[in-house]
From TrEMBL:
GO terms for biological process: autophagosome assembly; regulation of autophagy. This is Protein kinase domain-containing protein. One of its GO terms (molecular function) is protein serine/threonine kinase activity. Pfam families: Pkinase, zf-CCHH. Residues 388-407, 460-486 are annotated as: Disordered. PANTHER family: NON-SPECIFIC SERINE_THREONINE PROTEIN KINASE, SERINE/THREONINE-PROTEIN KINASE UNC-51-RELATED. It comes from the Eukaryota. Residues 78-351 form the Protein kinase domain. Residues 3-30 form a coiled coil. GO terms for cellular component: autophagosome; cytosol; membrane; phagophore assembly site. Residues 467-476 have a biased composition (Basic and acidic residues). Transmembrane segments: none annotated.
């Protein structure tokens, strides 16, 4: 009797378990179907957003007047159709390759002595970067050039409009949802273009909405950089270069280190490797907030030269607050680079999904961060360094105290460079000033995003320390009993064995 009762209970439990398993399986199936439906819905939303962006860009084309004329450039005859833009140094015409349907832009400028060096620099840069094999190239495509006594003419890819025209005509007065949707696309592809330059150790020097254009590409588009007469090749051992007094600058978009005045009250004219990232931060602030952080140029100049002036506080809008604030760090060594910002957006739980969809369905996003640069291109870029532009080794934009303070080498104990220039600028684990240069006791640099960092890729986690890292306490090391007073910081074996706070 008892055995029958037990068997009945066991059978009942097995049936309940089987029913529960079937219920869980059905629930898992429904969740998977719901997730797939949500993913498809998100992709449709992204596709609609991109199509809207493209349509808006095409409708922003400007025409100033029609002009019929022909010009031959490097063996190709172009038929000038119309004037589309007029700037400080020249005009942009829409043109057509004779006997073909191909449309191009012709940039026409007067041949003046002061302009020749800039144009030579621009053509050299455009020719070199054209040799880098990458899809949806972030640099406007170069077709050829012609120099006469009267003028200089450059044939290049035709864009629909620049970002300033696009934003003013299509987005500025729109709903907040529209601004947020279009804004993330602009932010991602502007950062992609700047990350491309960072990969080449190049500073554009005049990043602003007018120098970023939208180029239609079949059913998609690409945001590309133009106007490279001001580009600078950064020497890899140094983070900054000083340019000559003739260098022009666009108010607000030029970085604080450029406008900072020295003891003689002269503008320093320093360009840092993250100066372009500053300009991007100003663009994004203007894009999402609808105004600049400063009232006027005098207010901005005071901000750049007042040591007590604090970093810009960005309103908490759309989740971009910290991202833009780190691009607007007054001290360039604390400023986020375009590459780091792009990777942080990619790792973000919300923005990352949008970026993944953009990357998969339209234009690549982070391909520029690991692209291969041919050696002949790297060698050619070295020639961009110009007379009058020099490395100021006494500059100390990164140090808040002594001008002799070194910065932490980002590679820490894994650094393979032994050359004097590198060792003079960067401190390494075991150096007496390694702590003073911003490194943690683990030999890693503090991540600027802190606990809000979304990146978990090994390359980032090996280089930077975060508040919640388990490795922060270094359980495998004993604490040195002398702490900050330890005199054996130059002893590598000692530093490997003991932890210093």
């Amino acid at each position: 009797m008892g055995s029958n009762s037990s068997k009945t209970k066991i059978d009942a439990l097995e049936r309940q378990q089987q029913a529960l398993m079937e219920q869980n399986a059905n629930m898992a199936k429904r969740l998977a179907e719901r997730e797939e439906a949500t993913k498809q819905q998100d992709e449709v939303g992204i596709e609609q957003m991109v199509m809207l962006f493209l349509a808006m860009a095409l409708s922003s084309e400007t025409v100033m007047n029609n002009k019929k004329q022909e010009i031959e450039i490097e063996g190709t005859t172009y038929e000038i159709i119309q004037l589309v833009d007029r700037g400080n140094i020249g005009e942009i015409y829409k043109a057509k390759v004779r006997n073909k349907d191909m449309l191009v832009a012709i940039k026409a400028m007067q041949n003046t002595p002061g302009l020749q060096e800039e144009i030579k620099n621009e053509i050299h840069f455009l020719r070199l970067t054209k040799e880098i094999p990458i899809d949806n190239h972030p640099i406007i495509e170069y077709y050829g050039s012609k120099v006469t006594k009267e003028g200089i003419f450059i044939a290049m890819e035709l864009a629909a409009c620049d970002l300033e025209t696009f934003w003013v005509n299509q987005v500025k007065q729109g709903e907040s949802e529209k601004i947020a949707a279009i804004g993330i696309i602009i932010m991602v592809y502007v950062l992609r273009a700047l990350a491309f330059l960072e990969r080449l150790n190049i500073v554009h020097g005049d990043i602003k909405p007018q120098n970023l254009v939208i180029v239609p590409n079949e059913q998609s588009f690409c945001i590309k950089l133009i106007d490279f007469g001001t580009v600078e090749k950064m020497i890899t051992q140094r983070a900054h270069v000083t340019v000559d007094a003739s260098r022009s600058a666009t108010p607000f978009f030029v970085s604080p280190e450029f406008l900072r005045r020295n003891a003689k009250n002269l503008v320093s004219r320093h360009l840092h490797k993250k100066s372009d990232a500053w300009a991007a931060g100003v663009m994004f602030y203007l894009l999402f907030c609808g105004e600049l952080p400063w009232k006027n140029q005098i207010d901005y100049d005071n901000f750049c030269n007042d040591q007590r002036a604090k970093d810009i506080i960005v309103p908490d809008i759309g989740g971009y607050k910290m991202i833009i604030e780190l691009l607007l760090k007054k001290n360039p060594d604390e400023r986020s680079s375009a590459t780091a910002t792009l990777m942080q957006l990619k790792a973000h739980p919300t923005f990352g999904k949008i970026i993944e969809s953009l990357h998969t369905n339209f234009c690549p996003v982070d391909d520029v961060c690991h692209m291969k640069v041919p050696n002949d291109v790297r060698q050619g870029l070295i020639k961009i360094a110009r007379p009058g532009h020099y490395i100021d080794r006494s500059d100390s934009s990164s140090s808040k105290g002594s001008p002799e303070a070194r910065r932490s080498c980002r590679y820490g104990s894994t650094c393979l460079r032994k050359d004097a220039d590198h060792r003079a600028e960067f401190a390494h684990p075991g150096d007496s000033d390694y702590q003073a240069s911003g490194a943690s006791g683990t030999g890693k640099i503090q991540c600027s995003y802190g606990a809000k960092c979304y990146r978990h890729d090994p390359s980032h986690r090996q280089q930077f320390i975060h508040p919640n890292d388990k490795s922060r306490d270094n359980p495998g090391k004993q604490k040195c009993r002398y702490g900050d007073g330890c005199t054996k910081r130059n002893d590598r074996e000692h530093m490997k064995q003991y932890l210093h706070d």
